[in-house]
Design brief:
mainly alpha; 3 helices; 90 residues
């Protein structure tokens, strides 16, 4: 699968929290640049759903229709990763 905000954000948060890689490291910076490049104007990220739809779709108000639940989670991970990059993560 191609890179996306969910996988990238999750990996960056794991690196930051484990202190395996400094947020000033070029690898971390490359991830943050990817996130910034793929962010939508409203601040969200779109990730296509991976699961087979077993339940009827319920609109929760997040963008991207049937992809909204994974996109909301991806936006969460990406935002946390970018927060660490600013030096304000805990």
């Amino acid at each position: 699968m191609a890179s996306d905000a969910y996988a990238t954000g999750l990996a960056l948060v794991a690196l930051a929290e484990s202190e395996t890689s400094a947020v000033s490291d070029p690898v971390y910076n490359r991830g943050t640049q990817y996130l910034l490049k793929t962010q939508f104007a409203d601040g969200s990220w779109h990730v296509r759903r991976r699961a087979v739809p077993l339940q009827p779709h319920t609109d929760a108000g997040f963008p991207f229709g049937k992809d909204q639940f994974i996109s909301a989670a991806a936006t969460n991970w990406a935002a946390m990763a970018l927060t660490y990059a600013t030096g304000k993560g805990s």
